[in-house]
Structures are given as structure tokens and as C-alpha cells.
Amino acid sequence: MRQFSTRLTTRFMSAAGVIALVACTGTGAGAGAVDSAGSQSGEARSISAAEKQKGAEAHPQLLEEFGGAYTGPQVGYVVEVGQNIAVQSGLGNARSDFTVTLLNSPANNAFAIPGGYVYLTRQLMALMNDEAEMAGVLGHEVGHVAARHSEKRQKTATRNSIIGLLGQIGSQVLLGDSAFGRIGQEVFGTGSQLLTLKYSRKQEYEADDLGIRYLASAGYDPQALSSMLSSLAAQSAIDVRAAGRDARSTPEWASTHPDPARRVSRAATNARKLAQPDGVRNRDRFLQRLDGILYGDDPKQGVIEGNSFLHPDLKLKFSVPNGFAMQNGARAVAISGSSGQGQFTTAAYNGNMTSYIDAAFQSLAGTGKSITRGAVERTTVNGIPASYATARVESNNGQVDVTVFAYEFSKSSAFHFATITPAGSASVFSPMYQSITRLSSAEAAAIKPRKVDVVTVKSGDTISSLSSRMAYTAYQQDRFLVLNRLSATDRLQAGQKVKVVTY
């Protein structure tokens, strides 16, 4: 969450990130038809002016929602590889028509929108281990553009798409034509998110097939997409466990799709058909370029440490209950779990807390709608003046409670939680409401960014010793193994390059 965000119509922007991951680098099922000449059915031969305009209009909003464009030295490299792989699509003027952006986002994500706009997050780039894997993911996204998947998807995007989006982040309540349906649409948004909704199973496989084909025609090892998907599945499993959920549960980005292993296996099988003995990986070049990239949350937008969110500039901290996950977005921190969901954000504040709470409810209800709240109660939380109110709202699946819990940090600044739970269970978030506190200057100064260090293995280094250098207090070895696509039984060799996350 960026400092001093004051937009009243707030949204759970992290949800868009989850759906984009489903759409582009998550798991899917289906089959794409590739004819004997190698062309993909429905594959475009050029990007139309209308598509370019649509993409150009959505691009600024997507940048805002996903942390903005990253500005590190890796940017030029990503653009180079992305445009080179776009040429393999055969689209006219592909190198100049495609806009490739590295996003300053801590989510493992990649997606594409009409007009040749392709996006890769720095976090997903850090999970990769060679240039071929990056080319494979970017090729997958180019494939979505070439096959015009977004246009086909837009024709069928209805409110059911938004219902699916809610399901992706653990909500048990479905949207309808009720007031809660409007809440869901306003909170989760219907603009750029419709451009990044999940693709169909068939479309995912089509994009995989195209990405693999592009890898082979560009001279890369076509197995690279399969190995990247495998790393992504393993990282998602760690994220689930670190968030306090059942390690055996399905990763959220895969919850509506078949077993992730099936897609990995399919990609590997198809890649073997195009295997070439001299297919390149460019591991050394990739690691050299990757070295030093920001990893995890950008402290300027706040950081998530275990169950806590800390913002060094705003000097605040709160914690979510066990079993709930957080995702830091550009305008809000999204909170999700099986028993409720919420967000932490801010809005304009003029010193009147009742007006602030009413504005928060109005932003959830949307234009022309309203929510009848209960009385505004006043309290103090860790020395911070606070006020809250709850509304009982009808949904298609029964009644739900919508709560706004707000805090006055100064006479001109306030922050609030907006939460949704099944009726009668709003208290599930009570520990979170009571956890907010101010950070001291020393505590704020102690929050440091993480980065990827590419190190050379020395004689005597082991997986255990290098894992202990990972800048985490939990799952250090698991994170190290997944980051480097290693298994616990592998032996490191002196001179080998590996990635370590440090401060």
C-alpha cells in the first residue's frame, strides 16, 4: 500500500494479481490445436489499431495497480528477451508492437492484455533460473495475444467472472443482484480486472503450446516452460504454508484447475517433440543480469512479515489472525481467509470520523446505492482513537456483515479496515482490529528491503549453510531450494552460481 493513497473507491487489487497468475502462469487444462504446418488455430497475424488503443488505455491503470514499473537494471534485459520472443509469433512488426514491462510487484505473476502489452513481475523473474525460462513465460503471454484470447474472453466475461474472482481468494459468499453484489463489484473492480481474468483451460494449453513453439524457434530449450511451471507450483506451496494454511491445500491460483503436475507434465511432453540438442538456457547471463533485484515487498509500499504488515513511512503495524493471508497492493492490503475477507486502506479525512466511515461504506456500495450501517462506536486501540460500525447486508447466499473499523492517526490522516464475514461472525477480525499500533522511529528504520544475491559456491558450502543466509525466519531451506530449483539431496559444486535472498 503506497503512502498517502486517498482514492475513495478502493479495491482489493491483489485479487487481480491472483487472477492474472491463473490466467497466465497458473495451471489449466484443455488442448490447443496445432496443425502440421505449426500454425495455431485462431492465431492473429497482426495487432489491430483497436487492440492497441484498448491496451494503451488500460496500461496506466495496470501499472498503478501492480506497483508501477520497476526501474532496476534488469528492465532492458527483460524487454530485449520479450521482444525477441515476440518476433517468433510472426505478428507483423512484433518487435515494435509489443510493450514489455517489468513490474515492481512482490507477486509471482505474468499476464498480457490486448494491444501487445506483456507484463512480468520482478518476483516471478527472481524465481526463474535462466533466460530460457523467462523467454518461455513471456512467450506464453505473447501466445495469449497472438491467439486473441483476451478478445474471446471479453465476449463471455459476465458477473460470473467476478464470482470466480471472489472464489479465488477464499470468499464463501457469491455475488448477486443484491447490495452485496454491488459491494463485491466495487471492492474488486470491473475495469482492468476484466482484462486479466483467468483464461479457459483450452486457452491456457494453447498459450503453453505457442510458448513452447516460440522457445524452439528462437533456439532455446523448449523444456524451459515446464521447469518454470514446476518452480511456480513449488513456490506457491511454500506461500500457502507460510500464510498459515494447510500445506496440503491447493494453491489459490490453482483452486479451479486440475493438478498442477498435469500441466507441468504436459508441457514437458510437448517440449520433447521439439527438442533440439543445442537448445540454449543462458543461465550465466540470466543470473548476472538478475543479481541485486528487489525481492518481496518494497518497503516504500509496506512489507508483510509473517502474519504482520508493517509500513516504515506511515509508521504503523497490524497483524492478521492465523489462517488468513495478506497481499500488498498499490492502494490497499488485501486480507483473505475461509471465514472472511477484508482490506486495509486509507481515504481523505477532514477530522470527522463519522463522515469518514460513511464515505467508506458509500465507496463499497457504489454510485446510486447505499448501505444502512449500525451506530458508530468509538474506542481507543493502543492509544489510537478509533471508531467502527457494522452493516448487515443480504446476499444470494444469505446475510453477511460488512464492518468498517477506522483509526485517526492525526487530525488529517486516517486508515481503516473494511471486512466482510458471514452474518454473526464479524468478531473473527477482532484481534486484527486490536492489533494496530504505531511503529517507533527505530522500528521503522529497522525495516529493510530484501534482494537477490547471486553467489558463487565455495568449497565446503552446503545447501544447509547457504540456506541459513536466507533473510527469513521460517522455511529458509525450502525457500532456497525452490529459488534455485534444487532438491534436498542435491550436492553443490564449487564454482556453481546460486541465488540467496539477503537484506
TrEMBL record:
CDD domains: LysM (cd00118), M48C_Oma1-like (cd07324)
Signal peptide feature range: 1-31
Ranges for domain LysM: 453-500
Keywords from the named record: Hydrolase, Metal-binding, Metalloprotease, Protease, Signal, Zinc
Molecular functions per Gene Ontology: metallopeptidase activity
InterPro entries (alphabetical): LysM, LysM_dom_sf, Mito/Outer_Membr_Metalloprot, Peptidase_M48
Cofactors, names only: Zn(2+)
Protein name: M48 family metalloprotease
Classification lineage: Bacteria, Pseudomonadati, Pseudomonadota, Alphaproteobacteria, Sphingomonadales
